[in-house]
Design a protein that fits this description.
By secondary structure, the chain is an alpha/beta fold. The chain has a single domain, classed as NAD(P)-binding Rossmann-like Domain (Rossmann fold, 3-Layer(aba) Sandwich), CATH 3.40.50. Helix content is about 45%, strand content about 15%. A 4-stranded parallel beta sheet has the order 1-2-4-8, with helices on both faces. α2 runs parallel beside α4 and α8 packs across α9. It is globular and about 65 Å long. About 40% of the residues are buried. GO terms for molecular function: aldehyde dehydrogenase (NAD+) activity. This is NAD-dependent epimerase/dehydratase domain-containing protein. InterPro entries: NAD(P)-bd_dom_sf, NAD(P)-dependent_oxidoreduct.
Amino acid sequence: MSFKIAAWSANNPFPVVINAASASHDRSAKALIEGLARRQKATGKESYLIHTSGTSILGDHPYTGMPQDQEIWSDEKDNIFEMEKNYPERYGQRVTDVTVVETGLSLGVKTYIVVPPTIYGQGGGPFSTLSQQVPNLARLARKRGFAAVIESGKGIRNHIHIADLSVFYGLLFRAVIEQKTWLPSGPEAVFFVESGEHTWLQVSQGIADAMQKSGLLATNEVKSISLKQAAAEITGDNESLAEITLASNSRARADFARNRLGWSTLRGLDDFLNHFDAEIAAMLGELRG
């Protein structure tokens, strides 16, 4: 598989590849860069990789470790790459990010990492049109007959509408193609994109309200379940993964996007809190099946 990816990357006619596949598959990301290095050598023209990660790279362990609810990361002020490289816990997305940067440096391919948080809104592309966190919790609610929140649900996380995220990719793509002098790459090019913050309890309540309106739940009451229970039903008993992706604090600021790319959004917390009806409506066929 890695050989096929590298071969495709080497022979593709475009100078920029956007990797929007698994953020935790380091071998695929490495193969893309290896192929781009071959393309670069064959054509004599620079090739670039824009890799998609996620803010679970910042996720803490509020219930099994030390909560970090006051930690807010900036992509202009903090060295995100060094944090990932030296983080004491192995986590797939961090491993892949480090692989992307180090492979790019070793092969002379410029890399850029985009780190979105919870993505909401329905996409219009040919592949997956929904994100992960809300659908996973909606499926759990349908299975249990009530909307669940893991432990207290106090963890804080950022969000971004898919349309705003798409605008960010467009601005970054243009900057990469034009190779703006102010655009960093490699270790300094780890970029957040967010439009606000929510708690996990707000997510569960939004799901409960929307599913009750749709007749999928008898009540909009949210009940707490343990981390162990959530892991058993969502992440194959992987409690660490459940905690990081569905219960943690993961807070960032998209300073580079706002200050350098000229990116902005008019969507805030209210837009996020009001999107659950549409998200559940998009899942009705699955949830009623």
